[in-house]
Amino acid sequence: MAFSQKSRQQTIENLKNTPLDLLIVGGGITGAGVAIQAAASGIKTGLIEMQDFAEGTSSRSTKLVHGGIRYLKTFDVGVVSDTVKERAVVQGIAPHIPRPFPMLMPIYDEPDSTYDMFSVKIAMDLYDRLAGVTGTQYANYTISKEEVLQREPGLKPDKLLGGGVYLDFVNNDARLVIENIKEADELGANIASHVEATGVLYDDNGKVNGLKAHDNLTGEDFDIHAKLVINTTGPWVDKFKSLDSKESQAPTLRPTKGVHLVVDDSRLSVPQPTYFDSGADDGRMIFVVPREGKTYFGTTDTDFNGDYKHPTVEQSDVDYLLAAINNRYPEAGIKLDDVEASWVGLRPLIAANGSSDYNGGGANAGKVSDATFNALIDTVNDYEAKKADRAAVEKAISNLKTAHAEETLSPSQVSRGSSLKRADDGMITLSGGKITDYRKMAAGALALIRDILKSEYNVNAKEIDSTKLQVSGGHFDPTNVDETIKFFARIAQDAGLPEADANDLANRFGSNTGRVVTYVQDGAAPGLSLKETISLRYSVNEEMALNPVDYLLRRTNAILFHADTLNDLKEPVINEMARLLDWSDSEKADQTEHLNQVIAETQLDALK
């Protein structure tokens, strides 16, 4: 089914002329999650995004679906329980995207260490029980200092005590967004990128009943009418709220900036994702992750008050990360010139929480008394000695649990770090959260939306089980991922692609691989491999890729993890997109300039 520049024109007409039940503002992971669930519920749904889908925060995460083991430091067991359960749900509804990849946590004897060797084992055991992986191949274990250094010889041995290994998942954040968006489109939602909200419409009673919109591609202004409007604009929540003169303007968010740097794995090689204290006595932790022949590391965590649409990597960000990496890997000697790519994103943190995943959790950390904690430790020890059963452990956990379980949440807090509110004029705002929680946040919003549609508009929307609502590309058995991906790869090989290219396509597109390979019939585009050609054509025709940056940065990771291929890719990608989208010579020139600017910024040319 087409989801392209051509179908976009019809979508704009539908948005102008069809009264909606629900209009979603913001096409990041939160808006995408609301859209797929709303469309599946039979709600007449529209979504507008002022940029490309996932262009903001949702393509600029640490690219993990991680379980938040750090929260156990503050005994926020409810948060971890929710998070690891959601991680499993995301793997089930998008089985071609998150992949299990055990995390190594080296433990150092330093004054501000998050864990020591005793407490990390207790935390990992609890984490595994919450995640339901106890007794499986992914169960945690500790290793000695010598074993840590066998895995990662480059790690600093001084004060190294050993390490813990536990289950985590790698993720492709931008692809998770576009697959949700595509499925919502397939289910009947009217979804358009590059459409910006410019004002709020009200009925005669002063209630929100739509938005004024501007098409950033054509310059057209138009109105969109809807019974309900929901603000899912991420870091832009407060800026969008300023359009609504009838809503309180008290700040909701305290955005922070997170930076990641990419180097070739010949400069820094790690066998698995690694997670450690920064070593700067600042309470932060750093991820180091191998990916596609590269290694990336981050993140910074600093308050941000600059241009939300265009945050940039500054020298201070680079200095901080290089100091942390070279402290932990003293022989690596990573320098600015080694950085091949970077990305920077804003985290939409709820101001009242006061903190984030990366610097130790917020004011609502849910600390418990020493007596309660000691009771849990005793129960865990009894369980290890086979003197207590699982029920006893679960009971001890429940005594610690804060009010974060889905069934006990108030409407104003879908999960820790997120907020769901409805203003007096009817505007709904879903803010905060993190990528792991997106499905659950959307489910909370949909429960509210269904209630309002029924009680105020006599519209009955069906309830759905969103934990089973698979995204585009993810329509297969999540318990048999490896064999299924091999099957999709064989489809691509049968269409004439080499094995390595076929595997790459199958892992990227999942159950849509068969649709992707239909584009082989026109042959390879000049200067492009067959794999790159059909990937590009599919992304333009069925993933709303409207310019080279959409394709090379968010539909694929070429700009981030294949910088060495860009000189060969740029011109043929632009030429093929120009043919597919019927660009003029001046449009081609503009797109070339835009792509070169993004690449230069990503590669930190200005700092170099």
TrEMBL record:
Keyword list, A-Z: FAD, Flavoprotein, Glycerol metabolism, Oxidoreductase
One MF term from GO for this chain?
glycerol-3-phosphate oxidase activity
Do you know which InterPro entries this protein is assigned to?
A: DAO_C (IPR031656), DAO_C_sf (IPR038299), FAD-dep_OxRdtase (IPR006076), FAD/NAD-bd_sf (IPR036188), G3P_DH_FAD-dep (IPR000447)
What are the TM regions of this chain, as residue ranges?
none
Residues in FAD dependent oxidoreductase domain copies: 21-353
| UniProt-listed Enzyme Commission number(s) | 1.1.3.21
Q: Which Pfam families match?
A: DAO, DAO_C
Catalytic activities: sn-glycerol 3-phosphate + O2 = dihydroxyacetone phosphate + H2O2
The protein's required cofactors: FAD
Q: Which domain of life is it from?
A: Bacteria
Q: Which residues form the Alpha-glycerophosphate oxidase C-terminal domain?
A: 467-588
Q: Enumerate the Gene Ontology biological process terms.
A: glycerol metabolic process; glycerol-3-phosphate catabolic process
Q: Enumerate the NCBIfam families for this protein.
A: glycerol3P_ox_1
Q: Which family does it belong to?
A: Belongs to the FAD-dependent glycerol-3-phosphate dehydrogenase family.
Q: Could you tell me what this protein is called?
A: Alpha-glycerophosphate oxidase
- What are the top taxonomic ranks of the organism? Bacteria, Bacillati, Bacillota, Bacilli, Lactobacillales
